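thought: fold this chain, then report.
action: predict
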Amino acid sequence: MSSKHLGESVHDLLDGRLRGDKAYAAMAHLGECEECASRFHELKEGRDALTSSEAGIDMRFAQKLLDRERIAEIAAGEASLGHKPRRPVRRAPVIAAATLVVIAVVLVGVAWQVGAPGEVTLAFAAPRASGAAPVAYANTQQMRSGDMLQSWIHPDFSTSGVIPVEATVVQRTDGGMVLVATILAGPYGKQVTVVQQHGYLSQNATAQMPRADVKNAEVYVVENEGYSPMVVWQTGDVVVAMSCECSLTTLESVAEEFPSASDPGFADRVAHGFSTLASAVHP
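observation:
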């Protein structure tokens, strides 16, 4: 030890980390080496000054923190407490749930678009001319019960002066369903033909049409020279066309017997869209 300086070992000696022969050799070296002895005493005086200062700094705690052996003991003690390591966050279920939500939103959006009624032109008023095939029929009594007419617009046959005769649901070649009904109206029992289709009446079709005198609806008069008068209007998501060999006044009075309807709600439109999609997949 006398052949070289203590170097960093002077800190170990000052901290009391040297034991046995190493501590004895270091102390012997201090007695022989003036440079190492001077450094040892400077460090000791500095430490004593901090320990005894008015600020009350207790270096014993700092010494314990700097003591590598003490730190190792603390670490060993913490390991023996049996703390379980933190489990990593499982992101797969979260990602799967988020993916399902996105898919559901997309499907609902598609169903909403598919469930939207299409545009209806005046050609729907002559369904039999387009090769439509009948798919359902109702006689007078069945029309009064209203079972087949639930999704269509019709007067209250029990309170109005309109008398039901028969109704047929036909399917057009493009797949659209059309209701063709016959009713009797007016004091002389004029036969009136009512044609209905779900959708929205084309604005171009009514742009130049005159308005009929009907209080509860925007009813338009279809002017066909040489033909029976016809009126057409939109109520909810149903377009109604009505014609007869009678006066326009008679048609206007019959149109007032039809109630106003509201557009289908969100759930109904989405349900109709899913039904349409299902029919397309499994016709």
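thought: worth noting. The chain has two domains: 9-79, 119-263.
final: tokens above.
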